[in-house]
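Predict the 3D structure for this chain.
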Amino acid sequence: MADSTSSSHSDSSLSPTNNSSSSSSLRDLTHSAIQLVHWKQPKKSAATFGMSLLVLVSMATLSIISVVSYLLLACLCITITFRVYKSVIQAVQKSDEGHPFKSLLDQDISLSPELARTMANQCLVHVNRLSSQMRRLLLVEDLVDSLKLAAVMWLMTYVGAVFNGITILIIVDIIFFTTPLIYQKRKTQIDQHIDLIRSRVEETLYKLQDRLPGAVKRVKAE
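Done. Predicted structure below.
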């Protein structure tokens, strides 16, 4: 009985630490992604942007299997060439430096169960929120919001007729990495235009709301 009590106490004492470590790891990943997008480290951001754009452009012209095969072949060519080069240098200099990638091989890249559980919980929260919002919009809980969704989907039909999925991903990738730079340089002008657009949209929505029947109008107090 005492053993079970002590084990339960030990598990309860360890679980907050595991949760805090997994949440901190998730925050570190999010912080690293934000750092890349905001070009805090220009070399890493440029490499990530160039590699992602190269992969997407390759997928637009080749199959996914070909893109993955070419990427792995290019990686193997670089690593094998570097390994042979370092081996020759060590043989000529008669040094014993060991494997050139030893520091990378010794790194722990395994995904901890706590981090996987935290990421799964975060995904579950977003999935539940999305399903709830889609149910609310599709079943017309609020007519104005459902009309906005219908307008967006109608515009997306024209976007889909012009661009395919890979082209949209390429555009999103370019916008994802270039928008923060443009915003930092033109922050004042962009904020002014955003406020103007927001006020115009709100004014249009209020006019539309006034023309709707009383049963489906928004409650102004909300």
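The two ends are 55 Å apart (CA to CA).
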